[in-house]
Amino acid sequence: MSIGILTSGGDCPGLNAVIRGAVIKGDRIHQVSFLGIRDGWRGLVEDDIVPLPRHDVRGISRAGGTILGTSRTNPFEHGGIERVREVMAARGMTGLIAIGGEGTLTAARRLADGGIPVVGVPKTIDNDLSATDYTFGFDTAVSIATESIDRLRTTAESHHRCMVVEVMGRHVGWIALHAGIAAGAHAILIPEVEVSIEQICGWVENARDRRRAPVIVVAEGFVPSGEEHLHAPRGLDAFGRPRLGGIGERLAPQIEAITGIETRAATLGHLQRGGVPSAYDRVLATRFGTAAVDAVVEKRWGTMVSLIGTDIELVDLHSATTVLKTVPLERWDEAAILFG
Amino acid sequence: MSIGILTSGGDCPGLNAVIRGAVIKGDRIHQVSFLGIRDGWRGLVEDDIVPLPRHDVRGISRAGGTILGTSRTNPFEHGGIERVREVMAARGMTGLIAIGGEGTLTAARRLADGGIPVVGVPKTIDNDLSATDYTFGFDTAVSIATESIDRLRTTAESHHRCMVVEVMGRHVGWIALHAGIAAGAHAILIPEVEVSIEQICGWVENARDRRRAPVIVVAEGFVPSGEEHLHAPRGLDAFGRPRLGGIGERLAPQIEAITGIETRAATLGHLQRGGVPSAYDRVLATRFGTAAVDAVVEKRWGTMVSLIGTDIELVDLHSATTVLKTVPLERWDEAAILFG
Amino acid sequence: MSIGILTSGGDCPGLNAVIRGAVIKGDRIHQVSFLGIRDGWRGLVEDDIVPLPRHDVRGISRAGGTILGTSRTNPFEHGGIERVREVMAARGMTGLIAIGGEGTLTAARRLADGGIPVVGVPKTIDNDLSATDYTFGFDTAVSIATESIDRLRTTAESHHRCMVVEVMGRHVGWIALHAGIAAGAHAILIPEVEVSIEQICGWVENARDRRRAPVIVVAEGFVPSGEEHLHAPRGLDAFGRPRLGGIGERLAPQIEAITGIETRAATLGHLQRGGVPSAYDRVLATRFGTAAVDAVVEKRWGTMVSLIGTDIELVDLHSATTVLKTVPLERWDEAAILFG
Amino acid sequence: MSIGILTSGGDCPGLNAVIRGAVIKGDRIHQVSFLGIRDGWRGLVEDDIVPLPRHDVRGISRAGGTILGTSRTNPFEHGGIERVREVMAARGMTGLIAIGGEGTLTAARRLADGGIPVVGVPKTIDNDLSATDYTFGFDTAVSIATESIDRLRTTAESHHRCMVVEVMGRHVGWIALHAGIAAGAHAILIPEVEVSIEQICGWVENARDRRRAPVIVVAEGFVPSGEEHLHAPRGLDAFGRPRLGGIGERLAPQIEAITGIETRAATLGHLQRGGVPSAYDRVLATRFGTAAVDAVVEKRWGTMVSLIGTDIELVDLHSATTVLKTVPLERWDEAAILFG
Description:
4 copies of one chain form a homotetramer.
Chain A: E1 2-7, H1 15-30, E2 33-37, H2 41-45, E3 49-51, H3 80-91, E4 93-100, H4 102-113, E5 118-122, H5 138-159, E6 162-167, H6 174-183, E7 187-189, H7 197-209, E8 215-219, H8 247-259, E9 263-267, H9 279-297, E10 303-308, E11 311-316, H10 317-321, H11 329-336
Parallel strand pairs in A: 1-2, 1-4, 4-5, 6-8, 6-9, 7-8
Antiparallel strand pairs in A: 2-3, 10-11
InterPro entries (chains A, B, C, D): ATP_PFK, ATP_PFK_prok-type, Phosphofructokinase_CS, Phosphofructokinase_dom, Phosphofructokinase_III, PKF_sf
Cofactor (chains A, B, C, D): Mg(2+)
Subunit structure (chains A, B, C, D): Homodimer or homotetramer.
């Protein structure tokens, strides 16, 4: 029996621990071997596949990124179910583990609906997948963002500045919420909650009045209420293409203009998704990996591994891919008590 | 209205974030002020109490330890309910937040049973409290242990040695389990599971045969099966008092003698409980702090804040203090697949 | 006897360790007291000065930034020598320790030339001051940049991308050189060395051909040869003011266009100057602080503390402020062997 | 032309960066190939040698330990010069790079004196080699020790304890000196300086009187004056062999007995020598590696690469191996000002 495994979409700390967990448990308990599919769905539809013996996963759970490579290829634009079935048959692949986010899991669900034997592993640095309490990658991202804000704060305090820190989160504000609470931010701005520039400046002034250097954490997808037009292009890049300024860089001059407090923006960007995974993420990813190979062996096609409380459970891929898990207003309210 | 707050028992990363969360929410939302009780129950029975204005909790969630100090004083040995009631009345304290582990919460429960208006916040670096999925401190401890094992492994590999790393956990093996999984240990030894020295050596030889430097993670409370007598004193300390060697230092020479592999022990000790809390612990501790002051205002005496899934809930102090939360065998089995 | 102390210019990890070292040695050995001047020269010319007892410097060497605050005020635009003499006399200040970079030390030198009793402590995160082998802050900046590149590399490798990482260094490339060597960059671009976009792309393709994800480290002051016009404004900011794109963001699309390799830019920015100082910087800064107070007591006006090999020596402020310490071509050549 | 390379003695962060620097520069500039000698001198006298192509050193400068393995084998006990010459001839090895500490470099010197074409690279985590300002590994060790002391301090403060932290340094106190300064220790105890237990307790009480938790940093080779007998065995280990208690564990109960302050000991041990090297060590090690291959190509047999100020120079192996570089008294005096 041979199982294919792929990682798809943006990279995320913990992917390698999932791979390692699945391969070792498959080798030891179920006597199954693994085939490594390179660069996500691309490798599957292009038949770019290599054996993945246990030896090759040695020690990888400490490494960031994914040893299999990743891409954003959509299998349904490259032959779809028929092509996937063909390659799997040619390779003698009797099951497939697809590790990825909303897009990947939606593709996996459609493949499963079409009869492809596939099991999903949820991956989202943004924590935006419903049907699982958390996924790996999120804890590392929050840790890096928190450490970065701790660092930026000392400069802000020395110079009596306001600092606006932009973290990941196009559609949901989980990273901003957790990093903002952990770092003691004076405001946390997320896509889910409407806040005006005036209200932001109120928190900034409040912090300043208590002799603090105001620190604002903003998710990249936040838009101040009444200023949706700010999404319009800001200037041109080196090739004359219109560019969108990040929300952090757009907010900083507005805050400075209104409050008179010197304000700087910092954008953490890719730093949040790379490097050594946190212990939390390694444990969760390892558990996901071993549970996924069990699901394959038990032919639980169309399911996804999931963290519920402290347990790993199998849930239907449909339940995981239909609703975006946004920050509930009460969680933001709970945090907002500490603002300003 | 004035609320007393104390931290008791061993220190733990996140204590300050609980204090900060409670004080700020109390100040802003409930208009209550706080009294800081110094060194746990000692400060309460000795009336060593200071005002704790909001200004004093500024920026403390990033700091390890506790700004209030701590001790292992048991209030029932120093006047008990009568003395506590007397001091609280003299100070105008209408409620009490007690942050601590099993001992502290048991005292809090007895006080509550006796009519003292007290709310508990669970603190255990060992993760051994039932009635809450996790508490703050555990994640930081696991992170530090994991990083340390990552470091120790490179030396073991360069010298072709076996490394035995002793982590905290006198009664339960949660830190060993999580750090061992995260660091890819070749064996995880915990108090809950019987393992013989022969079995340990089997894993060590297995790893060696695959050209790995064997890494064993052992909780301090582990005893090899059939060797309970090893708890007998080992030598004398500088003052002639009998001393107990740690389990790591006891195992290392045995493994070396049986397997012939050079073996060293490292004991992480207090490193695991100090320093900057992880982002995870700061978030959880902050949420516990704000929830605790709500519970006080709502007069939910005799309850404890608790993490259930991703929610903060109130549970009865009785439920929290009667059963030790040990590692279930299936969790260890799940990890043991990766051993050797 | 009372000594004034100020920190001026951009903040830098280690400033607090200088202050602590000077204050404690002054208190214990020389029986001198300190006055803390707030926000650099601003506090001196505006007489914003507070007592700085030993108690206030407790434990601060671990903290980033400066407890005294800082600014970019130039004393010669606010009363100059006369005003400085006046405030010092009024405060009974018999000596002054000025901690800062090229601008600060030039001002200190002019004040010393005019008879003001001042001693300098060199501070430059960029390592651009001659007359000292290193200063504090540089090691922390290099450490953070190196860790960040380590993180970014895993994402680049997973996605088969080229990553351009922009680090500090407007006029000199020391941070880029050291972080680039430490992180194993495939090219290091610094203001001191002319390199064309074609040569950069050659290194990128070379790395790609060996199946590596190319990593380019660029100092913010680098300009590709033949493309000086790129310094022209790029687009407008949120207030319609012209903005300069960073060199990293300008290089990335050019590399992608020429090589066909997907390329992303990351700008580390203020992250490099904040937060907990490295052990190296704390030791050096502490030694600078204790040496500076000795110099004041010995009335060595117009000198600056300096690291020569492993010794702390006093050098003339003139020697420190006339030549920018650039990266010698042979140091870059030595590193360039490892490019591509 | 083929060059042998080996790492010998205790492992040390930066060894891999030396190897990588030498191999890449050899390949690119000098067109020489490398042979990797396994486990130090053992691999040489036992002819356990493998090709070391450039591909094998990819990305290793970030990894702790040594990819070549190490041992404490002395070549003069296994055939000496004749055997070394024989194996080198059989392998076509025209030069040798030996990376190691005092023992390794002494062996290298004797081999060079006997006509073996060898160049040395100094490695000492303890910083005890004369003829070089610093070597790689020391900075990482100091960094880890400093971070650890930062962590331990918070526990000490919360519990109002004294903490004794034992760091590496059997013969010299450099790690203790630097980590002690960086972490703000209240006493630094090193083998080079006589200090009595009474004096130590004086510093401890001093710190306590100023409401600090006393932190003592002690090098493992320190002996309190008048108590040399303390080196006598302390108890028995698990096999009945006499064991020496560490100095930290011996001091703690004495300090507690004399001062009445609860005192704990922590021994950092192997943690200090493993794991990811600091940026400083990676840069220095890379420079050493590239300079060593140059020295081989220029047939500078019997020399060693060395850091003088900021330059890499070649020095005679004799000069490097005759004098132990101890901490000068004035450096300890400089630090002692901040004690207590």
